[in-house]
Amino acid sequence: MTLTKAQLTDSIHKQVDLPKTKSAQLLDSLLEIIKKTLENGEDVLISGFGKFCVKEKRRGRGRNPQTGKDLMLGERRVVTLKCSRRLRDKVNGRR
Questions:
Q1: CA separation, residue 68 to residues 19, 54, 62, 65 (Å)
Q2: Is 0.85 surpassed by the pTM of this model?
Q3: Residue 1: predicted pLDDT
Q4: Average pLDDT over residues 67-88
Q5: Spatial separation of the C-alpha atoms in residues 62 and 17, rounded to whole Å
Q6: C-alpha 85 chain-centroid distance
Q7: Does residue 85 form part of some domain?
Q8: What does the alpha-carbon distance between residue 2 and residue 5 come to, in Å, rounded to a whole number?
Q9: Dist CA 5 CA 64 (whole Å)
Q10: Which of 23, 55, 66, 87 would disulfide-bridge 12, Cβ 3.0–4.6 Å?
Q11: Residue 62, domain member (yes or no)
Q12: How many H-runs (helices) and E-runs (strands) does the chain carry?
């Protein structure tokens, strides 16, 4: 199951005991800060969770998965997430 933005807002509402509107504003503000930081090419480190990194990709060959046709992909920036060791251990059932 995928965790949605509405579910995150509801969790904040319950755990922090904020009104739902304030919880939604808090989540929107946090996501906006992360987006702007990544747009500027800076990394975002959240201790205990992971690090969002902006990486430069070179031009390269690709393929359209629907048609199977080859194509050239231009230079671009991509966002990756490197999990923290603590999160990786929890996901794998280790302490």
A1: 50, 28, 10, 5
A2: no
A3: 84
A4: 94
A5: 48
A6: 17
A7: no
A8: 10
A9: 30
A10: 23
A11: no
A12: 3, 5
Structural domain count of the chain: 1
Q: Token pair of 74, please?
A: 């231009």
Residue written as tokens 């904040």?
A: 12
Burial letters 46-76, b for 16+ CB under 10 A, else e: eeeebebebeeeeeeeeeeeeeeeeeeeeee
Contact criterion met (CB below 8 Å) for 81 and 52: yes
pLDDT(95) > 80: no
Residue in the structure block whose two tokens are 């059932």 = 93
pLDDT at residue number 35: 97
| 56 part of a folded domain | no
Q: What percent of the chain has pLDDT over 90?
A: 95
